[in-house]
Amino acid sequence: MKMLQLIKRICKQVLRDKRTLALLFLAPIFVITLLNYIFPDPNDEITITTIHVNEDIIAILEANDINVKEENELDVKNYLEQGHASAVLEEKDEEWTLTILNDNPMDEGRAIQSSAQAVMEYNLNGLSDYMEETSDKIEELMDNIQTMIAQLPPEIAERLDINMETDIDLDAEASAEIDMGEDLVTVEYIYGDENYTFFEILNPILVSFFVFFFVFLIAGMSMLKERSSGTLEKLLSTPIRKSEIVFGYLFGYGIFAVIQTAVIILYSVYILDMEIVGSMANMFIINILLSFVALGLGLLLSTFVNSEFQMIQFIPLVIIPQIFFSGMLKVDAMEPWLQWIAPIMPLYYAGNTMIDVVLKGFTFSEIIIPLLILILFIIIFVTLNIIGMRRYRKV
C-alpha cells in the first residue's frame, strides 16, 4: 500500500512538471529523428575525380554508385580542400594513384575501397579477355595442326606424339601479362600518412567535444546549486548589477574551465601522443573560447530548470547534436534542411578548426574567422544570460 502511494506521488510530480514531460518524450524523438537524417546512407554516392583514367574503370566506378568527374589537369590539393570530391584518381602508364585529404575517414575510406575494387575488376576483365583470346588462338592452332596431320601420309601421322594441353602453361603466361599484386592503387595523403588511425583523425574533435560537454555540465549544475542553496538570492539582494553577477560567474568558473582545457589538451598531446602539425597555442585559443561558450550556454540554460534532473535532460537536446556537426560527418552530405543547423552549432566551428590546426597546420590568420564566430557566441550567451536573470529572478 505504501509502495502504491509512493508510485502515485511520483506520477503526480512528473505529470505536473511539463518541462520534464516534454524533455522525457520529445528529447529522444528529436535525437532519433536527427540520427536518421544525419548519418550518411551507405548507398549514397560519393564523388571521385579522375585524371586520364581508362574509360572501363570509370564505367566500373559509376556502376558501383560512385559519382565520377573527369578532369585533365588540376591542383589536386586545392581541389580536394575546396570539397569538389572525396578523392582524385590518376592513371599513368597503367599505374593508378589515389589522392585523399586524410581528414575524414568515412568518405575517404569508401573512395579507397571503391577505387581498388574498380582497378581489380578492370584487371580481372583484362585477364578474362586475355584468357579467351589465348584459348581462341590455341583452338585455331590445334585445328591447323589437325588439318596438317590429316594431310600427311598415315604412316608418318602415326609416328607424331603431340600433347597440346600439357605443352602450354596458360596460367604462367597470363600472370606474366597482367599484374594482380596487392597494391593495385597507390594512395597518397595530403595530410598525414597511412599510419593515421581513425582515432587520431577524430581526436581533435573529441578534445573540443569533451571540453564543451564537461564545462557546460559543471556551469549548469553549479549555477543551479547557487540558486537552490539561496546564495544567488542573497547576492541579488545586494546592490550588485545583473551584468556583474553574470560576468562574475563567467570568469569565476572560467578559471577552472581554462585549467580543465589545459589538462585535456596536455594529456592528449603528451600522454596519448596526439600529433600536432600546427601550433599548440592555437589549440588552446580555440578550446578556451569554446569553454567560455559552454559556460555561457550552461549558465543560460540553468535559468530555465529547477532541478539537476531537468538540467541533465538538456544534454540530448543541446550537447549530443553538436558532435554530429563538429566535423566528424560532412555537413555537405547531409539532408539540405539539416545543413542550415551546422552554422548555429559552436562545435561546428571549434571541431573543424581543431582539424585544420592539428592535422593541416593552419596558422592563426587562417582560423581567425571561426575564432571571431566563437567570440560572437560568447557575447550572445552573456547578453541572453543578463536578460534571463532580469526575467526569471525578478530583481
UniProtKB/TrEMBL annotation:
> Which GO molecular-function terms appear in the entry?
ABC-type transporter activity
Q: Which InterPro entries does the entry link to?
A: ABC-2_transporter_component (IPR051449), ABC2_TM (IPR013525), ABC2_TM_bact-type (IPR047817)
An annotated GO cellular component:
plasma membrane
Question: Family assignment?
Answer: Belongs to the ABC-2 integral membrane protein family.
Where's it found, cell-wise?
Cell membrane
Which keywords appear in this protein's UniProt record, sorted alphabetically?
Cell membrane, Coiled coil, Membrane, Transmembrane, Transmembrane helix, Transport
Q: What topology does it adopt in the membrane?
A: Multi-pass membrane protein
Q: Indicate the transmembrane segments per the record.
A: 21-39, 201-224, 245-272, 284-305, 312-329, 367-387
Is Metal-binding set as a keyword in this record?
no
- Is Cell division found in the keyword set? no
Record domain ABC transmembrane type-2: where: 146-392
Any coiled-coil regions, as ranges: 124-151
Q: Which PANTHER family match?
A: MEMBRANE COMPONENT OF ABC TRANSPORTER YHHJ-RELATED, TRANSPORT PERMEASE PROTEIN
Q: This chain belongs to which protein, by name?
A: ABC transporter permease
